Amino acid sequence: MHGYTATQSIVDGPVKGEDFRRGRAAAQNIIPSTTGAAIAVTRAIPELFGKFDGVAMRVPILAGSVADITLVAKRETSVEEVNEIFRNAAKKSQWQGIMNVNEDQIVSSDILGQPYGAIVDLTFTKVVGGNLVKVLSWYDNEAGYTATLVRHVKAVAEFLKQK
């Protein structure tokens, strides 16, 4: 679920191309759409090509989005094990400022201004049949994106200084 963006109209109107849904009023509709994020993930991790995809649901909010991730685990697992994996990962230095976990019953406005690319909502982790896993991860599609972009720019600058 992603807040509507500047590319969407605030009133019903014509659109370029064949995706007529993009021409519907963003402020009053839930609009199914494509997402470049799924393509970007498979470019970054080629092993996931053909095994990973996604859709975007544009919703009538300005910011505060959630990724709904469903996967089939290689082995049986539990909600407790999945959540513990995320808790442990959030403590590691490589994920500091990038990923956090949450155990409160939050909604989209609660994460506005948060700098994380992912805030895993441990209250919504589900495991069905032992290996079908669902995880929700919140992110501020403005502040979280900007903070992540700044981190990457700084890392590239440091890398270039070393050359």
UniProtKB/TrEMBL annotation:
Keywords: Oxidoreductase. It comes from the Bacteria. Transmembrane segments: none annotated. One of its GO terms (molecular function) is oxidoreductase activity, acting on the aldehyde or oxo group of donors, NAD or NADP as acceptor. Residues 2-139 form the Glyceraldehyde 3-phosphate dehydrogenase catalytic domain. CDD domains: GAPDH_I_C (cd18126). The keyword Coiled coil does not apply. Pfam families: Gp_dh_C. InterPro entries: GlycerAld/Erythrose_P_DH (IPR020831), GlycerAld_3-P_DH_cat (IPR020829). This is Glyceraldehyde-3-phosphate dehydrogenase, type I. It comes from Candidatus Jorgensenbacteria bacterium GW2011_GWA2_45_13.
